[in-house]
Specification:
This protein is α+β, with helices and mostly antiparallel strands. The chain contains four helices and four strands; from the N terminus they run αααβββαβ. The chain has a four-stranded mixed sheet with strand order 3-2-1-4, with helices on one face.
Length: 146
C-alpha cells in the first residue's frame, strides 16, 4: 500500500482493510493455536473470517470455606472485569477463626482487566489488614496467578 501511494497519491481505505483481512485470515487458518475463551477474541477472529479452535475448557474446582487456625484472620478477596479490559471491581471479606465477621471492602476500579482487579483486591485487603492492626492473616483469592 505504501508503494501504491508513491505512484497513485492516494490510498483506498477499503482496499487496505481488505488486504489486511485477507492476509490475517491466511495466517490464522494456517495456525494451530487455539483462542482463549474470551468474547473479544471471538469477535476479532470472526471479523477476520478465521475458523475458531476453542481452547480447552477448564473445570471449575469446588471451593468450600475452611476455618483458619485459632487467633488468625481469614481474608477472602475477588476481582472481576466486565470485558477485556472492562469496568472492574474488587472486594474482600475479613473473618475471625470461627467465622465471625470483622469487616469487608469493595472498590470500583474503572476500566481494567480481571487480573489487575484481582491484584487490587489483594493490595486493598493487605492495606486494610494493616490499618486494623491484624498480624496473623491468611489471604485467599481464586486467581491462581495472583
Amino acid at each position: 500500500m505504501r508503494n501504491y501511494v508513491c505512484f497513485q497519491d492516494k490510498i483506498e481505505v477499503s482496499k487496505v482493510i481488505s488486504v489486511i483481512k485477507d492476509l490475517t485470515c491466511l495466517v490464522g487458518k494456517s495456525s494451530k493455536v487455539s483462542m482463549k475463551n474470551d468474547m473479544m477474541d471471538f469477535i476479532v477472529i470472526k471479523y477476520f473470517g478465521i475458523n475458531t479452535r476453542i481452547g480447552k475448557v477448564l473445570r471449575p474446582l469446588p471451593i468450600r470455606w475452611k476455618f483458619p487456625s485459632p487467633d488468625w484472620v481469614k481474608i477472602n478477596t475477588n476481582g472481576a472485569a466486565r470485558g477485556y479490559p472492562g469496568f472492574a471491581t474488587c472486594g474482600g471479606i475479613f473473618r475471625w477463626s470461627m467465622g465471625e465477621f470483622i469487616g469487608a471492602f469493595f472498590a470500583f476500579l474503572d476500566v481494567q482487566t480481571a487480573l489487575v482487579a484481582e491484584f487490587y483486591g489483594v493490595i486493598y485487603a493487605l492495606e486494610e489488614a494493616q490499618k486494623l492492626g491484624l498480624t496473623n492473616v491468611l489471604l485467599e483469592c481464586d486467581f491462581a496467578l495472583v
